[in-house]
Amino acid sequence: MTRRKGFTLIELLVVIAIIAILAAILFPVFAQAREAARKSSCASNLKQIATGFTMYTQDFDEVLPPWTGNAAGAYAGGAFALQYMYPNLVGPYIKNGVDPATGALGGVWACPSSKTSLTAISNTYAYNYYVLGGMANAAVNTARPAPFDTSYNTPAPLATLGRPAETILIHDGAQLSRGPYGVDRNFYNTSVNTGVWGPHARGNGNMAPSGGGHATDPGRFNPLITGRQTNVAYVDGHVKLVPTFKLVHRNFIHDDGKWRGELQGGANPAGHAGWIRDW
């Protein structure tokens, strides 16, 4: 009789156990590497967008773009129609920023850490539009909060910015963002409506005082809104990954109490640091 050589059951089990241990060690490393790549890609997107803003301002007498070119609703589609909003205004200055034939936004406008959680992508970066894009008058009506004056009714000239390297231009978020002054005036007293996302160190829980995050789909939106790290492009063009709590009002308690916002808001301009034209 001939004897066939092969592995014993014990040997197979040992090999399988070793593979399982290696997988348990390496999979988290691979996940971290993928997320690091997404952070870098997101920062690169914001750098391109910030450069587009800079080129736009050079062509328009050093004035930042309006949040929409149809604020008065003179054209069909209204102020929020994408073809009139700031991505299409600065899009021609960004390679593959906008499809000239259809007006559709290019991939540079979608953060790779955000788009996997969303079913429809048009823009996952948020413009500081109250302060830089001429939205203040419509936002505050006659109850103008202390940091504002009538100059905020129109887009910001660069000369009016006291600290461009510290002034938030655009960041990870939901298309349009509002600083702590919006919370103080009770216009947008929910974490969802601030427009700030932290997709790079995600949370899982709910927020207060918004009462559970996005009412229609907290499973998708809460991780973005409660995340701890956000990429930010500043008016001078540089991009930095910052803790999300530095961007939101102290009233917001995120991720079931694991962290809360830092900004004070109130009548003192310093309570709105980074969000207004000077403080």
Mean pLDDT: 85
Low-confidence stretches: none
Helix-strand pattern, N to C? HHHEHHEHHEEEE
Percent strand equals: 5-15%
* Spatial separation of the terminal alpha carbons: 92 Å
Helix- and strand-based class? alpha+beta
Q: Widest sheet: strand order?
A: 1-2-3-4
Judging from the principal axes of the Cα atoms, what is the shape? elongated
**Strand elements, count:** 6
Based on CA atoms alone, the radius of gyration comes out at 23 Å
Number of domains: 1
Helix percentage: 25-40%
Largest β sheet strand count, sense and barrel closure: 4 strands, antiparallel
Number of helices: 7
Description:
The protein has about 280 residues and is α+β, with helices and mostly antiparallel strands. It has one domain (about 10-270). About 30% of the residues lie in helices and about 10% in strands. The chain has helices spanning about 10-60, 85-90, 110-115, 130, 135-140, 180-185, 220-225, and strands spanning about 125, 170, 230-235, 240-245, 255, 260.
Question: What key phrases describe this protein's structure?
Answer:
7 helices, 8% strand, elongated, alpha+beta
In short:
The protein has helices at residues 9-59, 86-90, 112-115, 129-132, 136-140, 180-184, 218-225; strands spanning 125-127, 168-172, 229-234, 239-243, 253-254, 259-260. It is of the alpha+beta class. The chain has one domain (9-272).
Secondary structure: elements and pairs:
Blueprint: H1 9-59, H2 86-90, H3 112-115, E1 125-127, H4 129-132, H5 136-140, E2 168-172, H6 180-184, H7 218-225, E3 229-234, E4 239-243, E5 253-254, E6 259-260
Antiparallel strand pairs: 1-2, 2-3, 3-4, 5-6
